[in-house]
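INTERNAL TRANSFER SHEET
From: sequence group
To: structure group
Subject: Histone acetyltransferase type B catalytic subunit

Please process the attached sequence and return the structure record in the designated field. Keep the field labels unchanged so the import script can parse them.
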Amino acid sequence: MTDALSHLVVDGNEVLEFKLVRSVEDIEDDDTSFGPEMCHQVFGENENIFGYTDLHIKLFYSAGSLQTYLGIEYTDKIEPSKSGGLKPDDVEGALRKVLAPGYVSNLDHFISMLEKDKYFTPHGHLLHSFTVTPREGGDKRTFEVYYSEISTPGFLAYHQRLQTFLLWYVDAASFIDVDDEQWTFFTVFEKYHCSDGGVRYATAAYATVYRYYAYPRHTRPRVSQVLTLPPYRKIGLCAELLQSIYSHFIPQPEVMDITVEDPSQEFQRIRDYVDAKNCDTLPAYQPAKLLQGFTPEMANQACNKFKINKKQARRIYEILRLKSTNTSDKTAYLNYRLDVKNRLNAPFQKKKLEMKKLQKVLKPEEYAATISSIGAMETQGRLSSQYLSLEEEYRRVIHRLEQD
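Return from structure group:
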């Protein structure tokens, strides 16, 4: 039975099609389509959908306001009366739970909504405008970053549609509590001219930032969710978005520092790049001082000027020191590696103290065996692996800095 029904099981990631539609022509243009990176948060842990032949799920969004069309197509589906009571998965039911209210299932209705999209303008107020020159050549593209709050007129309805993208691209994603006024929002739009010469806006990326309270009268903004939509990746939008967040909060005297909640490796790399580029302008981070080791002056300047916390300030010191180190100079390179490894090893010093206590209760041969099996060898191997991984990340950041 399992083999007979295997053709009715499909990978949800392979049958989902997304579009950010600017014009009617985009609907039939395969080049405007993109897919999800995951779907377990909608269709279950195994990401499979059962019960359909030639299933195709279309989730189209108008490029600006993100009005949504859901189309579910298939040539056949399993019938309970002919399959021993087996039922096809409720695809629309699963999507209905996560899509914002107001989505349409009639394509003509969606096309009529596209006409209204020409009048869409971003919510909130403009923070920053910048241009991007495509690597493959062509005209410069213009982008704008806007700031909104819970109370910004019209924003919450728009955000309800925008946040649905998180489920397909951010693991363990969750929708925020829109009743909490401490949430702030930063959205990136491409500003472009359509064929009739009019100016339009297309949603490209966004971030949410929560303003945590800090005693006695301070705040600690924490970057929570950051997403660049697939058609807009690899052109530098996330770095511009993060810098816009910094530029908004840094001048505010009540802000102690700006942190990031559980950053992914990719986002940490972007954060490192932006922070390193900023700290490179500080006196304490100049090459001559970097070679002398991390100092309180570095932490203070990074915090006072850019609201960077001490842990991140130390990381940026390591990146910029590596950038300034002549790795052909064996002594200079060795000193750098030892400096970083000492920092990496610091949390494990407590383990040594515990081992000393253990020594008092174990027989000499038992203690020696314990030390050899989990002590020095583990520490040496762990340090080497950690360091090599870290240096590889640092070099990627440095490479980007050198491309500027």
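Handover comment: The CA atoms of residues 177 and 183 lie 8 Å apart. The radius of gyration is 26 Å.
Transfer complete.
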